[in-house]
């Protein structure tokens, strides 16, 4: 039972393992826990009094207790296991799961170097620290840490780096849009020419915004949103901005990989945040 030996070695190192069946999925809950009828397991989204000793509740079953791993209740799971997984958050880790060559190239450009583990299609980048898990934070990239499991594929190579802010920012979501992207700019109080229409002021502001987006090393989606927010907070209420200015910002964002839809959503969300 090589999977059990691997699990016991992980547990001894403080990494809580669990068995996976074919398809890289956890074993189903026992009859008592089926459909979460037991009320869940502590620290799950639906906390409850469940004290099940079987490998139930997916990632929440992961444990470093060798007596549980070796127990009769787990024996059948180990006999039929196709792989071993672990709970990164339970080991104080975050895994950035890179699913293809494009995602790996992005990570090498935008993320701090750390320990890497080869996978079937890409790589796992391991950082020391715990954060919220989230799938599809960008094309081909998942973040696995708390309340999630990752397949154990070996210890990897390289020194492990502390979890950086650029990885934490990957799960940051801007507010859900509740208004259309089109905004009616209010007239300037008192009439007269808006001082922002002076080329030296407005053009410099747009150029600085373009530069900020272009030079983003990571968390591009969040950077685009915050840049749009800064531009609109300065120029969004006085009628300075034209379609040409907006096009410049959208072009810079799309050059960093943002889609037209994401640009429109970020612009709309910034307008909504500012009450425009």
Give the fraction of residues assigned to helices. Answer: 25-40%
Q: pLDDT under 50 segments (min length 5)?
A: 176-192
Radius of gyration: 24 Å
What is the β-strand count?
A: 10
Structural class: alpha+beta
Number of helices: 9
Q: What would the principal axes of the Cα set say about the shape?
A: elongated
Mean pLDDT: 84
Percentage of residues in DSSP E strands: 5-15%
Our measurement of the CA-to-CA distance between the termini, rounded to an integer number of angstroms, reads 63 Å
Q: What string, H for helix and E for strand, traces the elements in order?
A: HEEHHEEHEEEEEEHHHHH
Largest sheet: 6 strands, mixed
What does this protein structure show overall?
- By secondary structure, the chain is an alpha+beta fold.
- It contains 9 helices and 10 strands.
- Strands 4, 5, 6, 7, 8 and 10 form a 6-stranded mixed sheet that branches. The protein has a 4-stranded antiparallel sheet with strand order 2-1-3-9.
- Helix 6 packs antiparallel against helix 7 and helix 7 crosses helix 9.
- The protein starts with a helix and ends with a helix.
């Amino acid at each position: 039972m090589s999977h059990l030996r691997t699990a016991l070695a992980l547990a001894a190192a403080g990494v809580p393992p669990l068995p996976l069946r074919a398809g890289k999925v956890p074993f189903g809950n026992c009859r008592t826990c089926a459909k979460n009828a037991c009320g869940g397991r502590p620290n799950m989204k639906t906390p409850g009094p469940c004290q099940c000793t079987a490998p139930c509740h997916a990632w929440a079953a992961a444990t470093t207790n060798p007596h549980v791993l070796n127990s009769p209740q787990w024996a059948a799971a180990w006999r039929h296991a196709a792989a071993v997984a672990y709970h990164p958050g339970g080991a104080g880790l975050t895994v950035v799961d890179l699913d293809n060559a494009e995602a790996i190239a992005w990570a090498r450009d935008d993320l701090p170097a750390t320990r890497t583990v080869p996978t079937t299609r890409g790589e796992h980048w391991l950082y020391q620290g715990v954060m919220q898990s989230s799938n599809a934070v960008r094309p081909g990239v998942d973040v696995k840490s708390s309340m999630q499991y990752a397949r154990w594929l070996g210890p990897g190579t390289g020194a492990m780096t502390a979890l950086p802010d650029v990885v934490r920012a990957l799960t940051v979501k801007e507010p859900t849009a509740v208004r259309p992207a089109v905004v009616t700019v209010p007239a300037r109080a008192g009439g007269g020419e808006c001082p922002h229409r002076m080329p030296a002021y407005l053009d410099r502001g747009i150029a600085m915004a373009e530069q900020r987006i272009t030079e983003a090393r990571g968390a591009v989606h969040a950077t685009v949103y915050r840049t749009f927010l800064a531009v609109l907070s300065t120029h969004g209420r006085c009628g300075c901005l034209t379609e040409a200015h907006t096009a410049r910002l959208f072009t810079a964002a799309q050059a960093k990989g943002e889609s037209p839809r994401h640009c429109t959503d970020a612009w709309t969300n910034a307008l909504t945040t500012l009450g425009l």
